[in-house]
Design goal:
With 284 residues, the chain is an alpha/beta fold. The protein has two domains: 177 residues, Rossmann fold (3-Layer(aba) Sandwich); 59 residues. Helix 4 links the parallel strand 6 and strand 7. It is globular, with a radius of gyration of 19 Å.
Length: 284
C-alpha cells in the first residue's frame, strides 16, 4: 500500500453513500456531509492514510471499527504471531483510509503479547492517526492507556465511546475540557447507534492531513535523578538509530526495564522492529 503526505484541508462527515446529490447551498447539512463517507471494506488497493484503532477491551472498539468499514474486514494473524489482526478501509472526503484494529490492551508497557503488538505498531509503524477508544462509563480506567499513547505519538483522536451508557448511569463527561486537558480532539460517540461518527471521521481526517495540529499532554519533567542517564541514552539511540521515531520514549522504557525493548537492543533488532512494523503498516 502507498500512503500520501497531502496536507490540504478537509471537509465534513458520515453516512449513506446512496444519498441523493445535494445542491451547493446544502453543503453544510448533515445529509450532504454524510455522502462524504464511503465504506470500502477491504476492497481498495492503495490508501492515503493508515489509522490505528487502540483501546482497552470492552470499550466498543470493534463496534467503531465495523461502523466505519461497513462490517467487512480482512482478518488474519500478525506476522509471526498467533494474535488475530483485523483490517478494513473507508473513503472519506476524497481520500482513502486504511483502518487497523489493534489488539485490546490495558497499557503499552508490554506485559503481554497483545500489548507488545499494539505498542510496536503505534511506535515503530507510525500510523498517520491513532484513535484511542475510551469507555465513557469507566473513563478513569481507560485514561491510563490514552496517556501512554500520547507519550508515543502526537497524532491522536480520542473516541469517547458508550456515552449513551454513561448517560443512563448518570455519568456526564465534559469532552471539551477533556480535550483541552489532553491536547487532542475528544469526540463523544455511541458507535452502535451511529452517534458522533460524523464528527469522529472529520477529526481523523483533519489530524491526518495536518488541519488539526495536536499538542498532547505529556510529563513535563523527569525526576532529576534520571536526567543525566536519560539524556545520554537518548543521544546514543539517536546516533545508532537515526530514524527511531521516539528515542526519548524508548530510552524511558529501557531505563524502566522493558524486557522486550532491552532484548531488541541487545540483539541489534531494534531497527528490525521499526522496519517490520512499517511494513506491517503499509501491507494489505
Amino acid at each position: 500500500m502507498t500512503r500520501a503526505s497531502s496536507k490540504s484541508s478537509v471537509s465534513l462527515p458520515v453516512a449513506n453513500t446512496d444519498a441523493a446529490p445535494a445542491h451547493d447551498g446544502c453543503a453544510s447539512c448533515s445529509v450532504y456531509r454524510a455522502a462524504n463517507l464511503k465504506k470500502l471494506g477491504v476492497t481498495m488497493d492503495t490508501c492515503d492514510f493508515v489509522i490505528a484503532l487502540a483501546g482497552n477491551p470492552n470499550t466498543g472498539k470493534s463496534t467503531v471499527f465495523n461502523a466505519l468499514t461497513g462490517l467487512r474486514q480482512h482478518t488474519g494473524n500478525w506476522p509471526g504471531k498467533t494474535v488475530a489482526r483485523a483490517e478494513g478501509a473507508y473513503a472519506y472526503d476524497g481520500r482513502r483510509f486504511k483502518l487497523v484494529d489493534l489488539p485490546g490492551a490495558y497499557s503499552l508497557l508490554s506485559t503481554s503479547l497483545d500489548e507488545q503488538i499494539a505498542r510496536d505498531f503505534i511506535l515503530f509503524g507510525q500510523p498517520d492517526v491513532t484513535v484511542a477508544v475510551a469507555d465513557a462509563t469507566r473513563l478513569e480506567r481507560n485514561l491510563n492507556l490514552v496517556l501512554q499513547i500520547l507519550e508515543i505519538t502526537d497524532r491522536v483522536v480520542v473516541c469517547l465511546n458508550l456515552v449513551d451508557e454513561a448517560k443512563r448511569h448518570g455519568v456526564t463527561v465534559d469532552d471539551r475540557q477533556l480535550a483541552r486537558d489532553l491536547g487532542v480532539p475528544v469526540i463523544p460517540t455511541s458507535a452502535r447507534f451511529g452517534q458522533g461518527l460524523p464528527e469522529l471521521l472529520q477529526s481523523i481526517s483533519a489530524v491526518a492531513t495536518g488541519e488539526i495540529v495536536c499538542r498532547p499532554h505529556r510529563l513535563a519533567t523527569e525526576p532529576d535523578a534520571i536526567k543525566p542517564a536519560l539524556s545520554d541514552l537518548v543521544a546514543q539511540l539517536r546516533a545508532a538509530y537515526p530514524d527511531l521515531p521516539n528515542a526519548r520514549w524508548v530510552a524511558l522504557r529501557l531505563l524502566g526495564g522493558d524486557e522486550s525493548i532491552v532484548e531488541a537492543l541487545r540483539t541489534g533488532q531494534l531497527g528490525t522492529l521499526q522496519a517490520s512494523a512499517i511494513q506491517e503498516t503499509l501491507s494489505a
